[in-house]
Amino acid sequence: MTLLASARAGDHRAFDELVGPHRRELLVHCYRMLGSIQDAEDALQETLLAAWRGLAGFEQRSSLRSWLYRIATNCCLRLTRNRPARVLSFDHAPPLTATHDLGAAEPAELFVEPWPDSSSGGTGNPEDAVASKEEVELAFIAALQLLPPNQRAVLILRDVLAFSSAEVADLLGTSTPSVNSALQRARSTVGAASVDRYARRLPGDEEQALVAALVAAWERADVDSVISLLARDVRFTMPPLPAWFDGRASVERFLRERVFQTPWRFVRTRANGRPAIGGYQGVAGRYALGSLTLLHVGPDGIEWFASFLDPAVLDHLGLPPVLDPVAG
């Protein structure tokens, strides 16, 4: 008996083996659609439950992968009806200049969340390559959230996953001309967003050297050295706090007046295809995980500290919650 026949007969193990190779890429797809790893995990579970219940109706006119993508996409579209599109700090409020009041934390569901790269806790499966491409760049994920849900689905299915227009029309239950029209509008919207601002990259070895210099300077509280690594138009965001700072002068003021008041330790990792650092703030000799910061490094230095402070987000990163104070 084939895996499909066994799964249709009610064999859960056969079903898990059948859909297992697609789980990771479906999770990444849901993340692109929803901008949140937590929402993506919810959508994946709903997708797999719907697939299990509907397996008898899978007629094999398309591949199993396409069938699963149809279920996952429509599941995400249903979820978007009840959940507002997530944003970046730039799209939510104007930047601050004063540092004395960073505001109260906003609802966590307001902001785009980071995606931990496979190298920092992934499965090691070939499907992890799907998440290592630039299509999980944080600015791109945020730009996707600016689109109406149907356009978002079309753009991802066509431009990221390379389904044909006819295949996308079949997946979404619409016509090929409708898909092509939605794709044109979606490309125009995303093209007008600030995705290109963070597209420039240093060569990998130079990027890693700059990150190493940043970590070393930050841990020894050498503020001047940290400032020297910043681009002139650097930004510092920190959801779920609404505050963010724009430009070297404002970011320098924030770092000097607020950030370096306590000692820090860091663990280097990666997220959204970028180098990242898990920040551990020292209080009473104990270093507890308090942030994940994606570092967007360009030719002029660090262009964006995309720092995330929400404990629920940090729980998904696979980083230790506490560091030994004397560990190297």
Protein architecture, described:
This protein is α+β, with helices and mostly antiparallel strands and 328 residues long. The protein contains 14 helices and seven strands. The protein has helices at 3-8, 12-19, 23-34, 37-54, 64-80, 129-132, 138-145, 149-160, 165-172, 176-192, 204-219, 223-228, 248-257, 311-314, and strands at residues 230-237, 244-246, 264-271, 274-283, 286-298, 301-308, 322-323. Strands 1, 2, 3, 4, 5, 6 and 7 form a seven-stranded mixed sheet that branches. A hairpin with a 2-residue loop joins β4 and β5 (286-298). The chain is globular, with a radius of gyration of 21 Å. Mean pLDDT is 90; it is low at 119-134.
Care to count the β-strands?
Answer: 7
CA-based gyration radius? 21 Å
Largest sheet: 7 strands, mixed
Beta-strand residue fraction: 15-25%
The N- and C-terminal alpha carbons lie at a distance of 54 Å
Class by SSE composition: alpha+beta
- Report mean pLDDT, rounded to a whole number: 90
Number of helices: 14
Helix content: 40-55%
Order of helices and strands: HHHHHHHHHHHHEEHEEEEHE
Which blocks of ≥5 consecutive residues have pLDDT under 50? Answer: 119-134
